[in-house]
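Q: Convert this sequence to structure tokens.
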Amino acid sequence: MACTLATVALVLIVRSIAGSRVPATSVGHGEGGKNNKASATQKERNLLLRNDQLKISEATEYNGTGKNIFRLKIAVSPTPPRPIPLRLSPEKQPLPSMATVPLKFFGFAITADYGKQVFLSQDGDVFIGREGDIVNRRYKIVQVGRASVEIEDLIDQLQQMVPLEQQ
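A:
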């Protein structure tokens, strides 16, 4: 019984690896080879590529709308709303928020293969990059200096010099 199961398992493994190149085997169903040949031909027809549909899909070109889905855009109404005067004491005046790049520059390496690479971190994640690279899918390394790196936030369009942190 174990030998039979092992043989069936071996045949199934060989068929899955070789794909449709290995002919189907019958396990004693009446006429044997005639039904297997018909089913093998049907399987081959199902596996053929539709070249006409493939060419259509290859020729399709994506034309985006140019929208940045990561930026909030508020629709402006034709008549602007009236401003509501705020009466806050001088101590409670809101400070203007300055967006900053949250990356920390903690080192660099110079190698013959890659040149000058910088090591940046954010919330425990470490990123390695060179000038022109984009790290964390958002920040572009613009210029690498001895004690600082100029980083551009591609979403907020903000450039900032990040100094080398001494630890």
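DSSP finds three helices and seven strands in the chain.
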